[in-house]
Amino acid sequence: MDKEAKNSSDREHVLTFLHANPDYRSCYLYAEEEYQRPHYRLDIDYQEDIEFIRELAKRLPEENAPYWTTMDIINALDKEPELLKMRRVRE
Fold first, then answer.
1. Spatial CB neighbours of 64, under 8 Å, sequence gap ≥ 6
2. Is residue 28 scored above 70 in pLDDT?
3. I want to staple 76 with a disulfide (CB 3.0 to 4.6 A). Which of 23, 37, 53, 59 is the partner?
4. Percent helix, strand, coil in the chain (nearest 5)?
5. Is 4 a residue whose pLDDT tops 60?
């Protein structure tokens, strides 16, 4: 897709390209119950998002840096859910 997507919006929002090109397929991956946190977002779309990620990283186990596990991240956010308030509310 990197070589084929010419439109800048397709490069930023990969799913638009994916859905417009039937040669590509997508599927949903479902997390096991212990990992399910549908209200946790780790994408970076706004300045507030990068600030959130930086604050989150400060709370992750230093001995695992920079290869934190999914559970490292979940545990940090479960312990300090107020961090999520740093995120911009999606429009």
1. 72
2. yes
3. 59
4. 50, 0, 50
5. yes
Question: Are 17 and 45 in the same domain?
Answer: no
Q: What is the pTM of this model?
A: 0.72
Give the integer Cα–Cα distance in Å for 85 and 4.
Answer: 38
- E strands, 1-91, are none
pLDDT above 90: percentage of residues in the chain: 52
Torsion of CA 86, 13, 68, 40, to 10 degrees: 40
What's the CA gap between 87 and 85, in Å, rounded? 5
Are residues 16 and 1 part of one domain? yes
Q: Which of 66, 68, 13 is nearest to 43 (CA)?
A: 13
Q: What's the total number of domains in the chain?
A: 2
